[in-house]
Structures are given as C-alpha cells and as structure tokens.
Write a structure and sequence with these properties.
By secondary structure, chain A is an alpha/beta fold. Chain A contains four helices and twelve strands. In chain B, strands 1-8-9-10-6-7-2 form a seven-stranded antiparallel beta sheet. Classes of the chains: A alpha/beta, B alpha+beta.
C-alpha cells in the first residue's frame, strides 16, 4: 500500500473513460495494462475504436498483457521496447493531438511521473489527466545534492547511482521532476548510514 | 542613519558577529514561554525605531557580507535562482518594490531616479550605478528578479495566484532553512509545505492560504518563523546538507554559546501590482546564544520554549541531537522569574 497523506504527491484517482472525449490516448506500463482491461470490463468496448494505446511491458512482459490488449482491437496499439522510444512516440502523438483528446496513464509511479512531465510540456493541465497506479511501489528519486535521478528505488536508504551518497527517501514529491526527494542520511556523522530497508516493494 | 557595514563571513572561518546595537534589534520570535505553530500573521507596518520593523525592507550591518555570500552560492549553484517563464511581470514588480523601499528608507546608501521608463539605480555600498529601461530585460545585466535580489537581504519567492491557490513559480533562495527551490518550484502552497509536521492537521495551512489569497496591494503582512543553526551559516540548503550537516556533531558544552545560533525568519508578503502575484520575502537573522543571553528576558525565555517543544517540531527543525546540551547551558540564564509579554527586551 502506498503511504497516505503526502501533500506534495499527486493523487492517482484511477482511470475512468471519459464518454465525451473524441479521442483516448492511453499510455500504459506493465501492470498498468490491467487498468485498461478493467475499464473494458466496466464500460464495454465502444471506446476502443477511438483509442490509441502506447504500451511498455517492462517487468510484466511474462504476463503477456500485450496480446490481451491487441485482441481487443483498439484503433491503434503500439508497443515500446523501452521507455525512451515510448517517450519519443508520445511526443509525436501529442504533436498531432486535437481538441477533445483525453490522456490516461497507468503503471508505476515513476512511469506516471515521467509521462506527466511530457504532457505538461505540451500544456496539458495535470488535473485533466487520468492516472492509475499499478504494479510496484518503487520510487523514482532525485538526489538533492547532485540532482541525479535514480529509478526503481525500493529501499531507504539507498546509494545514489550518480554521486554515491546514501540517501533517505523523503515523502516529498515534485511533479515537475516526476521524482521524490533523496537527502543524505548520514550527513551529520558520515559512515553511520543504517542498512537499507525494503520500503517500496 | 548611515549604517557601518561589517566585513565578515558566513562560512569557513565564520567571522559573523552582531554589534551591540544589532543584538538589541534582533527579532526574537517568542512572545511567550512556549511555542506552537499558528497563523501568527500581523500587518507588516512600521514598528519601533531601532527594531527590524522600523523599515519594511530592512537593511542592516550585514548587508554587504550577505550579498557577497549570495554571489558565492550562485557561482556554485545557479539553480538557487529560477523563474518560470510566465513570471516576468512579477519580476519587474519585485525590482520596483525593492528599489523603491531601499531608496526611500536608506537614501544615504541607495538612490532611484525615474525618468519615464528610463531608471537610474545607485547602490553605494556595492558600488553599482546602472541605468536601464524598466520593462526591458535586455538593459540589465541579469533578469530583473536576480538583478535586484543580488542587492537585497533575505530570500525571495514570487508566488503566482491562480485556481484558488498559490504557486511557487520564481525565487532567489540562498539563505534557506533546509528547503530546495529547485525541488519545490512549480508547487502549490499545500505541496511545498508538504513536509511540515502537525501544522496541516491543525488547519494552519488552510487558514493561511485563505488569508493570503485575499492579500491586498499596499497592505503587506508578516510573521516570524525560527529554527537553530550551528555556526552562523546562511546557506543551510538541502543541496549542501552533506557539507554543513557535520557541524551539528561539533557542539560541546564548552562551545555551545558560541556555535549555536537562533535563526529567525522575518517573512513578509506583498501583493504585487502588475502581476497580481505575491512577493514572499524570507529575511534571515542570526544570533549566537552568547549574544542572545545578553538580553536577560530572552535568556530566561529560550530554555522554557525549548523544553516545551513537541517532539515532532524538535525533529523537523533538526534540534534533537543538541537539545540536551543547549538546555544544560541555557539553564543558568533562567532564574525562574516571570517574563513580560511580547518579544522586545525589557
């Protein structure tokens, strides 16, 4: 379960297909595919003819959600091998997007954050984006000291992958950076960092 | 009054000291013998002569040294000064407000001449004499907010107002009590206060936000906030925590009076005329315990406040490690006599 009550953290209220949207753009990662599949169960299949789905299987590849989605025959289904080409394709979609397009994002929090960053660059109000957290609670963390970002952090403290300092993962989130804040845990007495504890499985 | 500016440092050899005059005008933040978060806002109007409230933008003996320290911080880390693109009108508002107040209240040190949009700004302590066109950033050596806040004491945040919220969309932050502008820029009022304990639950931020959304031009407001800092270090940023954090382990019963500093923020908030943004000035004042206890009322009150703090606040303000040493040392200044109400010396 995610920690509740962090004021700076976006609320992920869940996908809820907008019946008034002219076009649906789904950007999904791993278990996030299930958020879409559940919407089909709840709302029927009609919206799929107006839907473009970008999918990154990541750690959920063995579950073959891609073939489930593909079998639903959406208007467009496209799979990315990694995040970088997915972001490239997303930009192309947003370049061409028209009024009435609704954006939906589902997956891990780090993924949602990075997709929202791109969406906000394109002037989409973050309140209007539907988001659903699925899969691991691993965090994307920015080191406040060197500014390097480490993805998929599951422990606190953890060693910054850029500068090596042991970082405490704070419950403070920046939407602009799409990351939590990591602060050196043993600054007052270097060398006394406690052992990493699995906090975000 | 002509101010004699001190030559001093806020790092390395820490030669910062307060003159006797400056000790007496220190904004001691405790008006009673205990402390809890509250919406402790009052109109930012001129106060007593020889207090920090005498002028609404206070310039004191540390001005030149603080500006030198700021320049050093910016060389190391330019991200301490940032503004989102829609904040340009608010940047000019800020420049105007700070120039007008400094020139009006300290005419020996600052002069502002306006000839239409052609302005001449003279800052004698820093040896600056620039003529520029108000509204044209190309006529200044830095963007307007950076230009003027390199010449004004305190940190500065410009918050935009929209969607019934306030947004931290610009700032010059080099003397902060452990928060990061680079991380918080773009956040709304609730978000950037996210890590503060207790206050959310007792509704402090809801009330403060409601109050600030209605702030009127020409009626600035203020509050005091405080923490403690080991050594008179202005730049206690999270960015550099791994550099200043070790200072906290250097406090001993012998050196606590010299090393431990009460750090007070005089926060003032100003509605800006063109942009409708709010300028949030966070002016930091430092005083060592040795200096502070020369005022008997403050020496009595500080240990009482420290003793009564809730553990969450002790933790959040980073006081846990040194509180026992502080309390032991301060105990001798508390003769258990009653203290008078309010913050001023008797």
């Amino acid at each position: 379960m995610l920690v509740q009550g962090i004021k700076s953290r976006p609320e992920y209220k869940g996908l809820d297909v907008d019946p008034h949207a002219k076009r649906h753009l789904f950007v999904l990662e791993g278990e996030g595919a299930k958020a879409l599949i559940d919407q089909v169960g709840a709302k029927g299949r009609d919206f799929l003819t107006k839907s473009e789905i970008l999918y990154l299987a990541a750690g959920a590849a063995p579950k073959a959600y891609d073939s489930v989605i593909s079998a639903l025959s959406p208007d467009v289904f496209w799979q990315a091998p990694t995040l970088q080409p997915l972001l490239f394709r997303l930009r192309a979609c947003l370049d061409l997007a028209r009024m009435g397009t609704r954006l939906y994002i589902a997956g891990t929090e780090g993924f949602i954050g990075q997709i929202m960053q791109v969406a906000m660059e394109y002037g989409i109000d973050y309140h209007s984006i539907h988001t659903e957290h699925r899969g691991s609670t691993a965090r994307r963390v920015q080191c406040v000291h060197c500014k390097g970002i480490t993805d998929n952090v599951t422990t606190s403290p953890f060693a910054c992958t850029h500068c090596g300092l042991p970082l405490l993962v704070r419950d403070h989130y920046s939407r602009r950076l799409g990351a939590f804040q990591g602060v050196n845990i043993d600054a007052e007495e270097p060398g006394t960092a406690p052992a990493p504890e699995e906090m975000f499985p | 009054m002509t101010i004699t500016f001190r030559s001093e440092t806020f790092r390395d050899d820490f030669t910062f000291r307060n003159s006797l005059y400056n000790i007496r005008r220190f904004p001691f933040p405790f008006d009673r013998d205990e402390y809890m978060y509250s919406v402790n806002m009052e109109p930012h109007v001129r106060g007593k002569k020889d207090s920090v409230f005498e002028n609404l933008i206070d310039v004191d003996e540390h001005y030149v040294a603080e500006m030198q320290d700021r320049a050093m911080v910016l060389k190391e880390d330019p991200l301490r000064c940032q503004a989102l693109p829609h904040m340009m009108a608010a940047q000019w508002d800020t420049l105007e407000l700070l120039m007008e107040h400094q020139a009006q209240d300290y005419p020996e040190h600052f002069t502002l001449e306006k000839n239409g949009d052609r302005w001449r700004w003279i800052n004698r302590p820093m040896g600056i004499d620039d003529t520029f066109t108000f509204g044209d950033p190309a006529t200044l050596p830095y963007p307007p907010m950076e230009y003027i806040t390199r010449q004004a004491q305190g940190d500065f945040c410009i918050v935009d107002q929209r969607d019934n919220n306030l947004w931290m969309d610009a700032g010059m932050v080099t003397t902060q009590a452990d928060w990061s502008l680079d991380f918080d820029i773009g956040m709304n009022f609730m978000e950037w206060h996210g890590p503060v304990p207790l206050a959310h639950q007792i509704g402090v931020f809801d009330r403060a936000l409601k109050f600030l959304l209605n702030l009127q031009q020409g009626k600035p407001t203020r509050r005091l906030n405080w923490t403690m800092t080991v050594n008179p270090r202005l730049d206690t940023s999270p960015e550099n925590y791994h550099k200043w954090g070790p200072d906290r382990a250097t406090v001993t019963p012998e050196n606590v009076g010299e090393k431990m500093h009460l750090r007070v923020e005089l926060q003032s908030l100003w509605r800006l005329p063109r942009s409708n943004a709010i300028l949030f000035v966070i002016r930091c004042y430092l005083i060592s315990f040795n200096e502070l206890v020369t005022v008997p009322k403050w020496g009595r009150r500080l240990p009482r406040v420290l003793k009564s703090l809730p553990p969450e606040i002790v933790d959040y303000k980073g006081l846990a490690r040194n509180r026992p040493i502080m309390l032991d040392w301060l105990a001798k200044y508390d003769d258990e006599a009653p203290t008078s109400a309010g913050i001023y010396p008797d």
